[in-house]
Design brief:
325 residues, single chain, mainly alpha, globular
Length: 325
């Protein structure tokens, strides 16, 4: 007996992929237009290999294991039983695997990987989903709030021009998400589907207290600082950047990454991140240099993903076969 196709499911899939194609197409059009209009200047950027690219690649890659350590620490803080079963190396390995699955739109692959691993490991799947939400929430706060403040202070009155939406819209999106960091509200939200699907409530112990949430938000600044530092190092191989611009450049990259994540229907923020980088950096350097920096950042970050894959292959041996992600 064959399964009957679900029309609503196919409509949702069609809508999601259609939206992805439209967004990528629009971003690609504007990016290609900027590239075409500045092609002569871009062509003049004669790129030669620079060892700083390698260093930036390693910096980008190290940010992923650091995120894994923080996620594992959060998991152990909420489940003392997990503290005895989940090692630091295993948390890093699971995080690396989830990171490599980010190219599936909506981060579906990332969360499914952790849920499947949890089922094999004997860790509460609902707890893993909750920590996944926390992880992304804290990373977004650590990305958007400092970056917007830095760019507001750097650009001054100009921010109220064409860039106002770019910087203020992410902050507006964070306002409803901030409620998730408040334990009673998040607990109530999660219990709605839990009662319907699991026929029971999720334990209150699965949620972080407000002081814990604030503490983890500060800790998740670490991976973003690494990303910003790697980008600044990369940008110095293309442009002459004064030290006073290091923070705005780092903020531009981190903010672009956050906006790319918010565009959850686009695989790994493809095109969205580059467009934001060009838009912000063009306030400081010629647009041709901004374009080259954005393309080089995508190339180096992809190379960093290869390093993350290597880390996972090495650490995978530390995980029992029955619970490997």
């Amino acid at each position: 007996m064959t399964d009957t196709p679900n029309p609503s499911r196919w409509r949702r899939l069609a809508f999601r992929w259609g939206l992805t194609v439209v967004v990528v197409g629009v971003v690609a059009y504007f990016f290609a237009t900027a590239l075409w209009e500045n092609w002569d200047e871009v062509a003049e950027q004669q790129l030669t290999f620079d060892v700083r690219w390698v260093v930036a690649t390693l910096i980008f890659a190290v940010a992923v294991p650091l995120t894994g350590l923080l996620w594992g620490r959060m998991l152990r803080a909420l489940d003392r039983g997990a503290a005895a079963r989940v090692t630091h190396l295993e948390a890093i390995a699971v995080q690396c695997a989830s990171w490599l699955l980010k190219y599936i739109p909506g981060q579906v692959g990332s969360v499914v990987n952790k849920v499947v691993w949890a089922g094999k490991k004997g860790v509460s799947r609902s707890l893993v989903v909750i920590t996944f939400v926390y992880e992304n929430l804290f990373l977004q706060f650590a990305s958007i709030v400092p970056s917007v403040i830095i760019l507001l202070l750097s650009l001054g009155p100009e921010i109220f021009g064409e860039n106002a939406t770019l910087l203020l819209l992410p902050l507006a999106i964070l306002l409803p998400l901030a409620a998730v960091a408040y334990k009673p509200i998040f607990h109530r939200i999660v219990n709605v589907p839990a009662r319907r699907v699991l026929k029971q409530e999720v334990p209150e112990s699965h949620f972080l207290s407000t002081p814990q949430s604030l503490g983890f938000t500060l800790e998740f600044l670490g991976p973003r600082i690494l990303n910003g530092a790697g980008f600044v190092l990369l940008a110095t191989t293309i442009s002459t950047i004064e030290p006073r611009l290091w923070l705005p450049f780092a903020a531009a990259y981190v903010l672009a990454g956050a906006i790319g994540i918010l565009a959850f229907f686009v695989p790994s923020g493809l095109g969205v991140r580059e467009a934001v980088i060009v838009l912000v950096l063009s306030q400081y350097v010629p647009i041709s240099e901004a374009i080259v920096i954005s393309l080089l950042a995508r190339l180096v970050s992809t190379a960093a993903d290869a390093v993350v894959a290597l880390i996972y292959v090495i650490l995978r041996r530390t995980i029992p076969k029955e619970s490997r992600p």
